[in-house]
Design brief:
Elements (H helix, E strand, L loop, with lengths): L2 H7 L4 E4 L7 E3 L9 E4 L12 H6 L3 E4 L11 E3 L3 H12 L8 E6 L4 H14 L4 E4 L3 E4 L4 E2 L9 H13 L4 E5 L2 H6 L9 E4 L7 H4 L2 H16 L9 E5 L5 H5 L5 E6 L5 E8 L5 E7 L2 E7 L4 H16 L4 H10 L8 E2 L7 E5 L4 H12 L8 E7 L7 H11 L2 E6 L7 H11 L9 E3 L3 H11 L5 E5 L6 E4 L2 E4 L2 H12 L6
Helix pairs in contact: 3-5, 4-10, 4-11, 10-11, 12-13, 13-14, 15-16
Length: 500
């Protein structure tokens, strides 16, 4: 595509030189820019792309700038109003704006985003609407997804648009995109032309980046604004909101064509008559404005029922029949690393979960606490990471509040001292005594074995923090890791006959 065509496709963009220059790719990393690319100079937290633009242009690369900088004579460039926001629009235009031909659902929230994203895609697929997905766990279409190894919930805008184009090429009619608050704040999902904006919940997370819960909520709320002004496709633009969440009053006031609420109480889409199944799932009645149906979810827990209701409302908003929605939810196999049960015949329950923040850990521990019966205990294994947006002391508080015993271990310390991270977790565990109520076992493999060794019949053991991830990020670099495999090995060593 010619540079002049790209400039014309973005509101406010102005061609400054080299209109006939051919562009094959949009990038914002100066190190990756090569002839045939358009380098977009984005201002980041630590670096400003404008500082690298002259050197990039000297390599024969077209550049997009917010402000003029000295460039080689005749260098092709365009001027943008907001490079970060326009990055997605440029990438979308270069790929022919695939989101205008796909039905697009955006899913955001603090916990439950990945599960809900895959639930929606599964429901759509089972209803005959081929669906792609972009999540923390995987990217792809149908069953042919590939693991997301980026460590990011939402990729940068050029990669998002490239995936949308790929989905369309593979025959997808819909796409479900998991949207982090960072992605919404930084414009990574610009050009995605949403039809449904779905919210799981909004807790207190990433406050190091956003500064306050109100700013965090505002970043999440941008998904509604993006949806409301997206390309018209004959689908009523809809916000799917959790009626039971504290964010509801704030989000419900955002202008959009339609709002659908879901919850366990008074809501448009609600669950009634919840009961646990013998297989460890949840059965409930699905009540909606489009009719009723019965769902037998393979996953347990109130929060998974809420995730299912969110997925149901999103699918209903796209016109899927309520019976097909219920069938899709009933057939959903669950998501790897999301309260994933490990059942090898041992006389206690064991789960692997991705909960890696104070908010996530508290949510899953509170859920598991409610399942205990007959004197069983709740045991947890978890660690704090070195990422700035995590709250080690908050994780300690959550464990102290909800579990009977916990083991503090290592979880992606990067270059930080794992022992120091463990001490920060301990600082939050007020009222709990080391050696009596908890232990510190920094080797994660040994920590899992310790919890399995301590587990008694009727107990529930949670291994939190790694979930689906395949590496431990240590100071010496990434180390291969499989939490479920480690859990299974620990159980087989302790209960070689499956507990019989």
């Amino acid at each position: 595509m010619r540079l002049s065509q790209l400039a014309a496709a973005v509101p406010g963009a102005r061609l400054r030189a080299g209109g006939d220059h051919e562009v094959q790719r949009v990038v914002h990393d100066s190190r990756r820019a090569r002839p045939g690319d358009l380098f977009v100079a984005v201002r980041g937290l630590r670096h400003d792309g404008h500082d690298f633009a002259p050197e990039v242009a000297a390599r024969g690369v077209a550049v997009a700038l917010e402000r003029p900088v000295p460039l080689p004579a005749g260098a092709p460039w365009i001027q943008l109003r907001d490079a970060r926001r326009d990055l997605g629009e440029l990438a979308a235009a270069l790929h022919g704006r695939p989101a205008r031909r796909l039905l697009v659902v955006g899913v955001t929230g603090t916990v439950g985003k990945s599960t809900t994203t895959h639930m929606i895609a599964h429901v759509l697929e089972s209803a005959g609407l081929r669906a792609g997905y972009l999540s923390t766990v995987a990217h792809g279409v149908g069953a042919g997804g590939r693991e997301n190894e980026s460590g990011r919930t939402t990729m940068d805008a050029p990669e998002v648009q490239s995936w949308l184009a790929r989905m369309e090429a593979e025959g997808a009619a819909a796409a479900v995109i998991e949207c982090s608050s960072h992605a919404l704040d930084q414009g990574r999902v610009a050009g995605c032309e949403f039809d449904v904006a779905a919210f799981t919940n909004v807790g207190r997370d990433h406050l190091d980046y956003h500064g306050s819960w109100e700013a965090y909520l505002e970043a999440k709320a941008r998904l509604i604004a993006l949806c409301a002004r997206s390309w018209a496709k004959g689908i009523t633009k809809t916000a799917v909101l959790n009626r039971d969440d504290a964010s509801f009053p704030h989000l419900a006031g955002r202008p959009i064509e339609r709002r659908l609420t879901y919850g366990l109480g008074a809501a448009d889409v609600r669950a009634v008559d919840l009961e646990a199944t013998e297989a460890g799932g949840t059965r409930f009645g699905l009540r909606t404005p489009w009719g009723t149906a019965e769902v037998s979810l393979r996953m347990a827990g109130r929060f998974n029922v809420l995730n299912a209701l969110c997925a149901a409302a999103a699918a209903l908003a796209l016109g899927v029949d309520v019976g097909r929605v219920a069938a899709g939810l009933t057939g959903f196999p669950g998501l790897r690393g999301r309260l994933e049960p490990v059942r090898l015949g041992q006389p206690f329950d064991l789960y692997v979960d991705f909960a890696h923040s104070a908010v996530g850990l508290e949510a899953v521990l509170a859920e598991l606490r409610g399942r205990l019966a007959g004197g069983g205990r709740l045991l947890a294994v978890f660690g704090a990471t070195a990422r700035a947006d995590h709250d080690p002391a908050g994780m300690g508080r959550a464990a102290a509040r909800w579990s009977d015993f916990f083991v503090i271990t290592t979880d992606d310390p990067l270059s930080a001292d794992p022992a120091e991270l463990a001490r920060r977790v301990e600082a939050g565990a007020e009222g709990r005594r080391r050696g009596h109520d908890y232990e510190v076992v920094l080797d994660r493999r040994s920590a899992i074995r310790r919890a399995v060794e301590l587990a008694r019949p009727g107990d529930v053991v949670l291994l939190a923090g790694k979930g689906h991830e395949r590496t431990l990020l240590l100071a010496q670099g990434p180390v291969p890791w499989d939490e479920r495999a480690e859990a299974e090995l620990a159980v087989r060593e302790r209960w070689p006959a499956g507990g019989r």
